[in-house]
Design goal:
With 223 residues, the chain is an alpha/beta fold. It contains 9 helices and 6 strands. It has helices spanning 14-25, 53-59, 63-66, 81-94, 104-116, 120-129, 145-158, 182-193, 206-222, and strands at 29-31, 71-75, 99-103, 132-138, 163-168, 197-202. Strands 1-3-4-5-2-6 form a 6-stranded mixed β-sheet.
Length: 223
């Protein structure tokens, strides 16, 4: 598309277009592709017995996405939350759903930048249109009130219409460290749990268990 000198589409100043393009190029999200190999096939249930295969297999049918229901994956670092989050997102993409993945802190940064450029409504609407929004690493960093309110707007835009799946290293009781306003925190928990599924992946590192298992096999072969 060609624009007139110093102008963007609909006569918008080119400088504003360039700022928007820079913001999009730094965008926090990525679309999960239906052509990707599904990482769910690699999940080692023996390494994390807290995760029930039947529950994950049921979620992989994507009925919850079609119904607009939420999913929460809660557990310590290394317990397989992100693995499951991306795997279930890939399953939804393979089923024909529009899926977007974002890390929580980067998503909030994008929303703040959009607000500064008076593009917040458009950005929230864009995140509201996908069938499944996967938010990873929620709870790793404290969010200020402004950022938390913007994230709440994204969740409200999607409520009971389109699914949200989150992975967090904090139990719900610890979310007040991320969302410092207690009432806002309670409202966000309500949005993310109503009619939803909660999977607790535990406290023992799934990655560490896998590494120990591989080491044991290697030692057994070399013995």
């Amino acid at each position: 598309m060609l624009f007139g000198c110093g102008q963007g589409p609909r006569g918008k100043p080119a400088a504003r277009i360039r700022r928007s393009e820079r913001r999009r190029s730094r965008s926090s999200h990525s679309d999960i592709s239906s052509s990707a190999r599904n990482p769910l096939s690699d999940f080692d249930y023996n390494a994390n017995p807290n995760v029930v295969p039947a529950v994950v297999n049921n979620l992989a049918t994507c009925e919850w996405v079609k119904k607009g229901e939420p999913l929460c994956l809660i557990g310590d670092s290394g317990t397989g939350k992100s693995h499951l989050l991306i795997g279930l997102g890939t399953a939804a993409a393979m089923a024909g759903c529009r899926v977007r993945y974002a890390r929580a802190a980067k998503l909030v940064n994008e929303l703040v930048e959009a607000a500064d450029e008076k593009q917040l409504s458009k950005t929230i609407a864009r995140y509201g249109r996908v069938d499944l929004l996967c938010i990873d690493e929620l709870g790793y960093l404290e969010l200020d009130r402004r950022g938390a309110e913007m994230l709440f707007q994204v969740l409200t835009e999607r409520e009971e219409k389109n699914s949200v799946a989150i992975a967090s290293n904090e139990s719900f009781g610890g979310w007040t460290r991320t969302f410092t306003d207690p009432r806002l925190c309670a409202a966000i928990v309500d949005r993310l749990t109503f009619n939803g599924t909660i999977i607790e992946t535990g406290t023992e590192s799934y990655r560490l268990a896998q590494t120990k298992a591989r080491t044991a096999k290697t030692n057994a072969r070399s013995a």
